[in-house]
Design goal:
The chain has about 120 residues and is mostly helical. The protein is built from 5 helices and 4 strands, in the order βααβααβαβ. It is globular.
Length: about 120
């Protein structure tokens, strides 16, 4: 999580977050809390700022996304969250920005690894 803990861009512009991504971050914070409650508190504050910054740029899992995920899932036996993120990006004609591009390759979604 520390590598992802960078400040958000000055303007959201064309950047969006899949709602499921916020859930994944929250879950990661709770898992981190078991080892380091102080660091988890810091991550919660960071997430709060991220949520505020992207408040108008969060894409929920709507019916069309769930339907698209249904078509992806038999060919992509991955975590449900990855499939829903891919389906969200495909539905909105966006790219997934991730270090784990291999996890999304078979879905056909465009990816960008900012760490390369």
């Amino acid at each position: 999580m520390s590598k992802r803990k960078s400040p958000p861009p000055t303007e959201s512009g064309g950047c969006w977050l899949a709602g499921i991504t916020l859930g994944e971050i929250r879950r990661g914070i709770e898992l981190h809390r078991l080892k380091d409650p102080v660091a988890a508190g810091s991550l919660e504050r960071w997430l709060s700022g991220l949520e505020t910054h992207y408040a108008e740029h969060v894409l929920p899992v709507a019916a069309a996304i769930a339907d698209r995920w249904r078509h992806l899932s038999p060919h992509q036996p991955r975590p449900v969250s990855d499939g829903l993120i891919a389906a969200t990006a495909i539905e909105h004609r966006l790219s997934v920005v991730t270090r784990n591009v291999d996890d999304f390759r078979r879905s056909g979604v465009n990816t960008l690894n900012p760490f390369q």
